[in-house]
Amino acid sequence: MKPAILFLDIETTPDVVWVWGVYQQNAIAVKEHWYVLSFAAKWMGSRNIVVNGLDDYKGYKGGESTERMLLRDVHQLLSMADIVVAHNGRDFDVRKLNARFIAHGMQPPSPYKVIDTKNDLVMVAKFSSNRLNWLCEQLGIGRKLDHEGFRMWEGCMNGESKWWNKMKRYNKHDIKLLEELYNILAPWIPQPNAGVYSGSHCCPNPACASKDLEKRGMSRSKTRIYQRYQCRKCGTWSRDVKSQGGTTITRAV
């Protein structure tokens, strides 16, 4: 059994505020707080990408009138997931969703692990930029869809169907890029161990979970020795949980 992996991307509005000028200003007051415009989600192993905007729900009248219904659908998906993959997900998508769940008086979804293809990558590699578009172009995956900038967000906030269609295509395409990026990065970045979910001796990469492991030397800690493996399918390295016994080396305290 593999873990249930959900790819997720959300789009939000900005805060609408009063300011005295246009350069490096502090907000005087908030006229309208931000809210979630749309989300796109896909289960690993499925071809279907779910893309919902506020305008897809009954009773939509512009603004955030149907946000609670959209959030309820996202909440249900999160509660079904073992692992959520998102780009800048820990700092943005997950925390933004949690803020709106709290604002609507909703309970927390079932606990899940987060794999952040932006911030987890920083720990193991230094690209010139960790933005999704930059990484995907450099790795030959593709690029984000071009759009008219803030005009697309503004059009959705005003309830214009033309811009809603563009926003949802944009949101959906980001999920396609995200999944391909994750598949490349999965052997490199720290992740929940697939063996914990399957209960078997397998590749720890949850995107792989292959049992085709090759013994490749020993892993040594300060006082223990462990059998080391490399997955023949994806290249992920792992080691046994139990050591092959202690050593005669004394440990400093």
Write a structural description.
The protein has a five-stranded mixed beta sheet with strand order 5-4-1-6-7, sandwiched between helices. The chain has a three-stranded antiparallel beta sheet with strand order 8-9-10, with no helix packed on it. The chain has seven helices and ten strands. The protein folds into two domains: 5-185, Nucleotidyltransferase, domain 5; 212-253, no CATH class. It is of the alpha+beta class and 253 residues long.
> Major beta sheet, specifics?
5 strands, mixed
What is the C-alpha radius of gyration, as a whole number of Å? 22 Å
Helix proportion range: 25-40%
Whole-number tally of structural domains: 2
Q: Helix/strand-derived class?
A: alpha+beta
Order of neighbouring strands in the sheet with most strands:
5-4-1-6-7
Tally of DSSP helical segments: 7
- The CATH class of the largest domain, by name, is Alpha Beta
CATH superfamily of the largest domain: Ribonuclease H-like superfamily/Ribonuclease H
| Mean pLDDT figure | 93
Q: What would you say about this model in short?
A:
With 253 residues, the protein is an alpha+beta fold.
Write the layout of secondary structure elements.
Blueprint lengths: L4 E8 L3 E3 L10 E4 L3 E8 L5 E5 L13 H14 L2 E4 L2 H15 L9 E4 L2 H4 L9 H7 L11 H8 L3 H25 L8 H5 L14 E8 L4 E7 L5 E3 L14
Parallel strand pairs: 1-6, 6-7
Antiparallel strand pairs: 1-4, 2-3, 4-5, 8-9, 9-10
